């Protein structure tokens, strides 16, 4: 399988090269960053109500004064679905003064 020549495509190619079967559903984690825990919590509260199937974890980032909201979605890790989900979460994070910091999968 080939992927577009961008960051998402490169990550998917690396995951595929590592032997992960991308034709089955996997937990995909989308990372959102905030300056304040309250901002991360507000987005988590919104998602808990509107996307109850999503697993949400708030924790301090390695960078001081930054909070992570990890949003895990069980999905088929195809390029278009990942790009769409990432864009949707990025738009939502912006409403809470946060921003998207990429995505990942556990190997």
TrEMBL record:
<feature type="domain" description="Regulator of ribonuclease activity B">
    <location>
        <begin position="5"/>
        <end position="104"/>
    </location>
</feature>
<dbReference type="Pfam" id="PF06877">
    <property type="entry name" value="RraB"/>
</dbReference>
<protein>
    <submittedName>
        <fullName>Ribonuclease E inhibitor RraB</fullName>
    </submittedName>
</protein>
<dbReference type="InterPro" id="IPR009671">
    <property type="entry name" value="RraB_dom"/>
</dbReference>
<dbReference type="InterPro" id="IPR036701">
    <property type="entry name" value="RraB-like_sf"/>
</dbReference>
């Amino acid at each position: 399988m080939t992927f577009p020549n961008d960051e998402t495509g490169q990550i998917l190619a690396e995951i595929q090269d590592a032997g992960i079967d991308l034709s089955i559903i996997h937990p995909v984690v989308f990372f959102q960053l905030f300056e304040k825990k309250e901002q991360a919590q507000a987005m988590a509260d919104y998602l808990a109500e509107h996307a109850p199937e999503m697993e949400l974890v708030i924790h301090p980032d390695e960078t001081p004064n930054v909070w992570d909201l990890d949003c895990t979605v069980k999905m088929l890790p195809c390029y278009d679905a990942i790009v769409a989900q990432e864009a949707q979460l990025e738009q939502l994070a912006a409403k809470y003064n946060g921003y998207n910091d990429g995505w990942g999968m556990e190997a």
